[in-house]
Amino acid sequence: MTKRLITLRINGAERTFAAEPQAILLDAIRESLHLTGTKRGCDMGTCGCCTVLVDGEPRLACLTLASTVQGREITTIEGVTPGEGLDPIQRHFVEDGGSQCGFCTPGFVMTAKALLDHTSDPTQDEIREAISGNMCRCTGYVKIIEAIQRAADERRGAKNPLITVDGVAP
Questions:
Q1: Predicted local confidence at residue 155, as pLDDT
Q2: What is the residue range of 96's domain?
Q3: What is the count of structural domains for the chain?
Q4: DSSP characters for 146-161?
Q5: If you average pLDDT over every residue of the chain, what do you get?
């Protein structure tokens, strides 16, 4: 097939590249735009490693044609990190043990960002529901839930939040 120019707005900047009409967003992000923070996991939409935000909503980049998101705002993990330091979600994943090998972390961070951008004080059940499409083979999810809850608390300005998961304090 013949390649054509595609323009995507990624992390606040417009980027134009040549791609096949059937190119998936994951390949466009990683191979054409060289943003490698978004991970390739299952290529079937079951693990959540490739999660990005499209207009603020989580989207699996492995199941999305790049051409279908032209003109929409796409945010990758590279777009989450502010100019200095880490976003509270990223920092709490590090500080609170929400990641071990780190491979799935970008997908979880993107999913958590979408949740916290829409819900400032999510319950543990809301967090569990939001991350239900993301898979981690290293953790038991308890630390991931705690990291997201602590990030939510920090975003709201809560001081010294006490987090419990299933009634057990960390």
A1: 94
A2: 88-156
A3: 2
A4: HHHHHHHHHHHT-SSP
A5: 92
